[in-house]
Amino acid sequence: MKRFSIPTRTEVNSSNQEIFDQVQKSVGFVPNLYAYYAKNDTALGDYLQFQNRKSTLSKKEQEVINLVVSQLNGCRYCQSAHTAIAGMNGFSSEEIIQLRQAEAPFDEKFQALAEFTREVVENRGKVSEAAKENFFNAGFTEANLIDVVFKVGDKTISNLIHNITEFEIDFPVAVELQAQTV
């Protein structure tokens, strides 16, 4: 079976080396997911530009989406990374577990967002009228809807890459939840 390796800084092209240096400086290390993207000459820069695009959604709202999508797609790497990131953004451990289950009983707006995101992923965009109504009644806009879909796409790319490669998780490994199927 093919084993997938994580390239070191010296094994990637010069533009990816520059990105490695920037990530190292801002994050403190180069996550294996980002390093893996650098096996392609342009993918890391392209992905980071897509991931970091300006959004109408807050950091916490984006983490709700990241947690729901990563759980539904069964990506242990992204579940772990976003459990850590969600904690840094103020979510408690209990709230993170609930969000991974597409639940947010602690906040009506996050509940509507988690439910909407779950339906986007599970139903490939064919969201129920009730989930749309809850989403908009919670105060989200059509601009937010577009950003939700962008974030779902962003996270799905990473989920698929890790699910294919299964390289080492370099974040504290998140507790495993009961499997959900899409």
Quick recap:
This protein has 182 residues and is mainly α. It has nine helices and no strands.
Mean pLDDT: 96
Rg, Å, rounded? 17 Å
Q: How many structural units, i.e. domains?
A: 2
Determine and state the CATH class of the largest domain. Mainly Alpha
Task: Work out the helix count.
Answer: 9
Instruction: Give unreliable regions as ranges.
Output: none
Helix content: 55-70%
The dominant shape is: globular
Strand tally: 0
Write the layout of secondary structure elements.
Layout: H1 14-27, H2 32-37, H3 43-51, H4 59-72, H5 76-88, H6 93-100, H7 108-122, H8 129-137, H9 142-165
Description:
The chain is mainly α and 182 residues long. It folds into 2 domains: 12-51, no CATH class; 59-165, AhpD-like (Up-down Bundle), CATH 1.20.1290.10. The chain has 9 helices and no strands. Helix 4 (59-72) packs antiparallel against helix 5, helix 5 (76-88) crosses helix 6 (93-100) and helix 7 runs antiparallel to helix 8 (129-137). The longest helix is centred in the last third of the chain and has 24 residues, at 142-165. The chain is globular and about 50 Å long. The two termini are 27 Å apart. The model has no long low-confidence stretch (mean pLDDT 96).
